[in-house]
Request: fold
Amino acid sequence: MIREGSDLKWLADEEISAEDLALDHRMDISGSVYARMKELGITQNELAELCDMDRSQISRIITGKQNITLSTLAKLEVALSFRMDQGFTYHAKQLSPRGVGSRGD
Reply:
């Protein structure tokens, strides 16, 4: 759908798909991991060793191409001495899941 004008309010009204939201999360994680690696001055090889993973998997995580498990996320947090809790906490009214409240509950 093509929208005219400079009003961007319609963006806030658009529903985000699960696929797009997953991509957002992967990119947030990849950016956080990369930034923390730079702060600590460690390489992908070093992080891979700390996490007991292949360097190629670390590379995919950093580029946002790897879907990671909670276990992998925890390994990264321990190895990098940081927490990502703030990125995955509930904030009211940011998403409108289908079916929630649709019956007037």
